[in-house]
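Blinded run. Sample ID left blank on purpose so nobody reads anything into the name before looking at the predicted structure. Input follows.
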Amino acid sequence: MQYNWNWNVFWLQSPEGTGTYLGMLLQGLLTTLSTAALAGTLALLLGSAVGILRSLPGPTGRVLSSCWIELFRNIPLLVQLFLLYFVLPEVVPAAWGAWLKQSPNAAFHTAVVGIGLYMSARVAVQVSAGIAALPAGQKAAGIALGLTLPQTYRYVLLPVAFRIILPTLTSDMLSTIKSTSVALTIGLAELTARAQAMQEFSFQVFEAYTAATVAYLLVNLVATLSARWLERRTRIPGFSRT
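Blinded prediction complete.
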């Protein structure tokens, strides 16, 4: 195969007219990070609420949380993004649909919500598993001390449960970063989309995707090392993690 490598392509002017190809990729990386940060926050908040609901006594909470988890876990992320981006504006009232279509950052908002909902199902399973892994006596001890059920969760159960599930939560957050690449299908100009555009404009395919690969590796490596540092800081002596 004849291929002319040209690593200087990153310093050439991009057809967008806003800077070099390197700047174009960095802009895509920034979009990837902002999308992942907001989607991860949404997934953590919703997943924690659903996970707690799943651990409450009584069948109602378990049924509702199971419906949420099975709905968002069993539908592929790509399909969920298409439903939110293309179908939802057509089925809501016309004024809402027009607002959704005309929003200048519709692809970004759709990606944040879609990825956040998809990942919330996985976080919910982790949170409920972490609570279930605690000795049953901890909840009873909290109640015996006069705490209400919400206070028992707030001050006794959740602080320990989140420390137990921190390694698996880290894996989910890394998946959130990588899942942002799916959003290029709805027009979000994130890192993979920018690399694709660069190779189409410059015909330097390998350089474009090599740069994207290195960027993903560095971002995930930093996230992994940060999570391991947090694990060491929050480790409970004598308490084994799952």
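Unblinding after everyone has recorded impressions. The mean pLDDT is 91.
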